[in-house]
Design brief:
With 288 residues, the chain is of the alpha/beta class. The chain has eleven helices and eight strands. InterPro entries: Aldolase_TIM, Elp3/MiaA/NifB-like_rSAM, Lipoyl_synth, rSAM, rSAM_sf.
Length: 288
């Protein structure tokens, strides 16, 4: 495997991180920014933005690419939805992203908790747009409907990788199930933007990447993110390749030509990176 390229090396901005961390710690909140070792943590915190992670710090699944620990889950905190709304207001966020650990131990996958979080943010912060990044809910469409009825502005569910890699790297998920979540979201409420993302560097081919784009477009998905897989630790799946910047640009060009309303493509792009910009641009195209 080639050495990690210079463009993947980012500086840690401790001056930007500490104030936001203080607010989150005071309210007992988690961010996926730290749990997933996001490379954009310093940049986003400098802008006083964060992606809140609800339902604990422990996941019920063991994906080969993810840094979030799997194990015994925590009891849901009934104060969490309101605390996230309070933090959103205090940090003066305009577009807030709420993600979750996968909770297969809960009957609805945590849908009601996510819905309550959306409602609390919109109640306390009237002008804030809300994006949620959800699990596949084990394909539970009734649970999905509960989330959508809370009226998030963006419903994000990541396909994560091309279909052929699921068995090895995402064994507890199903490619078709993830596509179904995106498809049903549009059927339930066509006015809510849908979004998905996938990583490169896990062993995919270009042909598989283009097939994934086509499959996602068939669900009428609006926004696509394409990123580089970065190995969290030696225990995780190895990186098969580091995609060059010009290739990310080419993937973006092709995806836009295929029909996506907004595409973010780059080595350090993550699901919630530039989420506000993606929402605004996709919304403008929707009304054209």
């Amino acid at each position: 495997m080639e050495k990690k390229p210079e463009w993947l090396k980012v500086k840690y901005n401790s001056l930007a991180v500490q104030p936001v961390d203080g607010v989150l710690a005071q309210l007992g909140l988690n961010t996926v920014c730290q749990s997933a070792n996001c490379p954009n943590l310093g940049e986003c915190y400098k802008k006083k933005t964060a992606t809140f992670m609800v339902m604990g710090k422990t996941c019920t699944r063991t994906c080969g690419f993810c840094n979030i620990p799997c194990g015994r889950t925590e009891t849901l905190d009934s104060n969490e939805p309101r605390n996230i709304a309070i933090a959103t207001k205090y940090l003066k966020l305009k577009h807030v992203v709420v993600t979750q650990v996968t909770r297969d131990d809960l009957k609805d996958g945590g849908a009601s908790h996510m819905a309550q979080t959306i409602k609390e943010i919109k109640r306390i912060c009237k002008d804030v747009t809300v994006e949620v990044l959800i699990s596949d809910l084990r394909g539970n469409i009734d649970a999905l409907r509960v989330i959508l009825e809370a009226k998030p502005d963006v419903l994000n569910h990541n396909v994560e990788m091309v279909k052929s890699l699921y068995k090895e790297s995402r064994p507890q998920a199903r490619y078709e199930r993830s596509l179904k979540i995106l498809e049903e979201s549009k059927k339930i409420d066509p006015n809510i933007l849908t979004k998905t993302g996938f990583m490169l560097g896990l062993g995919e081919t270009d042909e598989e990447v283009y097939e994934l784009m086509d499959d996602v477009l068939k669900t009428n998905c609006d926004i696509l993110t394409i990123s580089q897989y970065l190995r969290p630790s030696p225990k995780h799946k190895k990186v098969s390749r580091y995609v060059r910047l010009n290739q990310f640009d080419e993937y973006k060009r092709i995806a836009m030509e295929k029909g996506f309303k907004f595409v973010a493509s780059g080595p350090l792009v993550r699901s919630s990176y530039q989420a506000a910009e993606a929402f605004e641009q996709a919304k403008k195209k929707e009304y054209k």
